[in-house]
Amino acid sequence: MDALSQAAKEARLRLPSAPVSVSAFAYAETWLGSADRFAIESALPLVAGPQFHRKVRDGSVFHEVFADTEPDGWAGWVSAYA
User: For residue 28, which of 7, 43, 74, 77 is within the disulfide window of CB 3.0 to 4.6 Å?
Assistant: First the structure.
């Protein structure tokens, strides 16, 4: 398994309970220690520990690189009230 695949398995994207207004992302330590590492987004520098993102107005609760994965419409409503 290459370093990127391994890091993707170990990276953490955390969401608190609904209603959600903040998320956090943390790079895997193996990714930060890899010679092939790179930041997946300019707003997510290569640092250890969680990096928080707050939802603003109609924006996503996730960092831009993950924004397309956020449930919308019916799926968002079900997630919030399930």
Answer: 7
Q: What is the DSSP letter of 20?
A: P
Cβ atoms of residues 22 and 50 within 8 Å: no
Q: What is the mean pLDDT of the chain?
A: 78
d(C-alpha 25, C-alpha 50), whole Å = 5
Cis check for the bond before 19: say yes or no (omega within 30 of 0): yes
Nearest to 6 by CA among 33, 30, 32, 39: 30
The model carries a pTM of 0.65
pLDDT digits (tens, 9 = 90+) for 50-78: 999 888 887 888 888 888 776 666 666 66
Using alpha carbons, list the distances in angstroms from residue 9 to 1, 27, 79. 11, 10, 23
- Torsion angles phi and psi, residue 12, rounded to 5: -125, 130
